[in-house]
Structures are given as structure tokens and as C-alpha cells.
């Protein structure tokens, strides 16, 4: 009976991509594989660009346009189920938890929307725009704002539980791991905050401000900065353990890293997808696109899926970095892929939401 329940839980987890990077620790790893070259199953045309990453839960795709329309689309058919109006949305991705969709807008409002009906549950007003994607732990929702605060709200009511003041806008999505919330900020600090109390536990220097979100795995943190570096931290020792900087190109890293096995993968504004060794930060391989890569890669089995501002969706081999497949969207892909068993969804800057399925 216990084995059955564990198997059922794992099957459910693999069938959903409920938030930016797929999990509270922001690994950017899908516990599924998509066999064979992908083919387009459907496309959904919105009036405005998709800048943020879609969420997928219980057979519905939740995606937000930059002009402020949160849509629910049937994963099987691509047909709209409902629409919900927000303020303008930039970067904030939907987060689905407990039957509610959470998303922030540039008016500084965090919206909680019924996932089945599209009806508002509650709203919470911060003091400046929200570009951070919400994250969750237990019955709480965590997100950052340009008012320089990290917020913790009741997931059911939207009541403020605590807020933590930083020294700069909080653009990133908070990472949650082992009872701690991590934020990589515009104040050039990687901060660890107690998820229960909102008290800072420690802060580590990033050396530059960052728009990327930190991936937390095995008590290590990985994040790129606008100082043209990628940093690896040992969170137990509270120290940086390596720094990567391209020896010939000086470009920022806005893309958030995907972390699996012995490597991390992220995009750069140098038009390159970088794969680094997790232990020492040495480059394993790189793959050049034709424009900057703000899209955050997703690792699925032996494949990496990532968009580029060159309008291409790429599938790369995790071991070698060689291109396996590509799709021409025709407009920049700044959003990141969302993967579930049997499907990949990504939105483009010309307002098209694409759903791909494997050919095998």
C-alpha cells in the first residue's frame, strides 16, 4: 500500500509543472523524457506577448500575457477555458498550488485565482511592481517586489504573515529548500531567510546585481549575475566555492540555471548556452545561438530544452551540447519551457503559446 501511494505521488508530480523552474528549489529539471523529435500539437494565439513561463497542472496550461491576461488553456486541445484580467505582467510566472493560481503584476498586485473557474479568490497589494514569480511552502506563498521586500502571505487568505526588507528590488523568484528562502537580489547579495519567521540567517556577496533566480541543490546554490559571472556557493560553509567567467566575452547572465547530475546549464546574453561542472565551475561545453539567451533551460533526461531571442526552441544533448532538434517560432523566446509527461509548452514574444509532443 505504501509503495502504491509513493508511486501515485511520483506519477502526479511528473504530470505537473506548477511553477517557474518546476519545483520550489528551482532545479529546472523535469522528471520525464520526451522521446524522439518533437512535433507541434497546437498553438494558441493571444493578442499580446508571452514573456513569462507557463505552468501546467491537472491538464490545464496557465500562461500570462505582458498586457495582463492570465489564460487557462486545455493541454489536450489548446482551447481556452477561461481568462482573468490583471495589470501588465513582466517576468512573473504563474504558480499553481492547492487549486489556486498565483501571479504578480506591474501594479504591485499579487493575484490569487481559482484554477478551475478563473474567478478571483483574493488580491494583495505590494508597494511597487512584482516581477518575481511566486513560490510556495506549506500554506504560504513567497514572492519579491521592487519595493525591496520579500513577502510571505497566507496561501488561503492573502493575509501578510511577514515581510523582509532588503537593500534593493527583489526581481528573482525565491528559492525554497530545507525551511529556508533564498533570494538573489539587486542589492548584490544572496540572502537566506527563515521561511517560518522571516528572519535573515545569512547573506553572501554576489559581487554584482542579478536578475536570475538561484537554483538550490544538495546544499549548494548556483546563480548568474550582471557582473558577467556564474557563482557556485556552499550553503553549509556559507562561502563561494567557484566563479565562472567567459575568458573572451563580457556579457551578463539573466537566465536561471538548471541543475542535474554533475553539471549546471544556463543561457547567457553572449548568445551562448553554457554547461558548467557543478564541482569546480569549469566549462564542459557551450552552444552558440544567434541572439541572447534569457530563457532558462530545462533538463529532461539526456536532453536540454531552451529558447533563444533568435526565435528558435532548441533541444540539446546534455552530455555533448550538440543540437538534436530545433523549431522556428518566428519571434523571440524569452520564456522558459514547461514540461510534463508527453508535452512541452512555451510562449513567444508574438503572442503564440506552443504545445509540442514527442513523435514516438
Explain what you see:
By secondary structure, the chain is mainly beta. It has a single domain (2-358), classed as YVTN repeat-like/Quinoprotein amine dehydrogenase (Methylamine Dehydrogenase, Chain H). The protein has 1 helix and 33 strands. The chain has one helix spanning 2-14; strands at 29-30, 38-45, 55-57, 60-64, 69-74, 80-85, 95-97, 100-104, 109-114, 120-125, 135-137, 140-144, 149-154, 160-165, 175-177, 180-184, 189-194, 200-205, 215-217, 220-224, 230-234, 239-244, 258-260, 263-267, 272-277, 283-288, 298-300, 303-307, 312-317, 323-328, 338-340, 343-347, 352-358. The strands form 8 sheets. Strands 1-27-28-29-30 form a 5-stranded mixed sheet, with no helix packed on it. It has a 4-stranded antiparallel sheet with strand order 2-33-32-31, with no helix packed on it. A 4-stranded antiparallel sheet has the order 3-4-5-6, with no helix packed on it. The chain is globular. The two termini are 33 Å apart.
Amino acid at each position: 500500500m505504501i509503495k502504491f501511494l509513493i508511486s501515485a505521488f511520483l506519477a502526479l508530480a511528473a504530470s505537473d509543472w506548477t511553477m517557474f523552474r518546476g519545483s520550489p528549489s528551482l532545479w529546472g529539471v523535469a522528471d520525464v523524457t520526451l522521446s524522439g523529435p518533437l512535433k507541434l500539437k497546437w498553438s494558441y494565439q493571444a493578442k499580446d506577448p508571452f514573456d513569462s513561463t507557463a505552468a501546467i497542472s491537472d491538464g490545464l496550461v496557465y500562461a500570462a500575457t505582458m498586457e495582463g491576461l492570465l489564460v487557462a488553456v486545455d493541454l489536450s486541445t489548446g482551447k481556452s477555458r477561461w481568462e482573468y484580467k490583471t495589470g501588465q505582467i513582466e517576468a512573473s510566472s504563474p504558480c499553481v498550488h492547492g487549486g489556486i493560481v498565483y501571479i504578480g503584476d506591474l501594479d504591485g498586485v499579487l493575484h490569487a485565482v481559482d484554477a478551475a473557474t478563473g474567478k478571483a479568490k483574493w488580491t494583495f497589494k505590494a508597494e511597487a511592481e512584482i516581477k518575481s514569480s511566486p513560490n510556495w511552502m506549506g500554506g504560504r506563498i513567497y514572492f519579491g517586489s521592487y519595493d525591496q521586500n520579500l513577502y510571505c502571505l497566507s496561501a488561503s487568505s492573502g493575509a501578510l504573515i511577514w515581510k523582509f526588507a532588503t537593500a534593493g528590488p527583489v526581481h528573482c523568484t525565491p528559492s525554497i529548500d530545507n525551511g529556508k528562502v533564498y533570494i538573489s537580489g539587486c542589492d548584490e547579495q544572496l540572502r537566506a531567510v527563515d521561511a517560518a519567521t522571516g528572519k535573515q540567517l545569512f547573506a553572501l556577496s554576489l559581487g554584482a546585481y542579478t536578475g536570475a533566480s538561484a537554483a538550490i541543490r544538495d546544499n549548494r546554490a548556483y546563480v548568474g549575475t550582471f557582473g558577467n559571472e556564474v557563482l557556485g556557493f556552499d550553503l553549509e560553509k556559507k562561502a563561494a566555492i567557484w566563479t565562472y567567467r567567459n575568458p573572451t566575452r563580457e556579457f551578463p547572465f539573466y537566465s536561471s540555471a538548471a541543475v542535474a547530475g554533475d553539471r549546471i546549464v544556463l543561457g547567457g546574453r553572449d548568445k551562448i548556452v553554457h554547461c558548467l561542472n557543478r564541482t569546480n565551475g569549469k566549462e564542459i561545453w557551450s552552444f552558440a545561438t544567434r541572439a541572447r539567451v534569457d530563457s532558462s533551460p530545462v533538463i529532461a533526461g539526456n536532453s536540454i530544452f531552451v529558447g533563444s531571442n533568435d526565435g528558435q526552441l532548441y533541444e540539446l544533448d546534455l552530455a555533448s551540447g550538440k543540437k538534436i532538434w530545433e523549431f522556428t517560432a518566428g519571434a523571440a523566446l524569452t520564456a522558459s519551457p514547461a514540461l510534463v509527461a508527453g508535452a512541452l509548452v512555451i510562449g513567444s514574444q508574438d503572442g503564440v503559446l506552443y504545445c509540442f509532443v514527442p513523435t514516438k
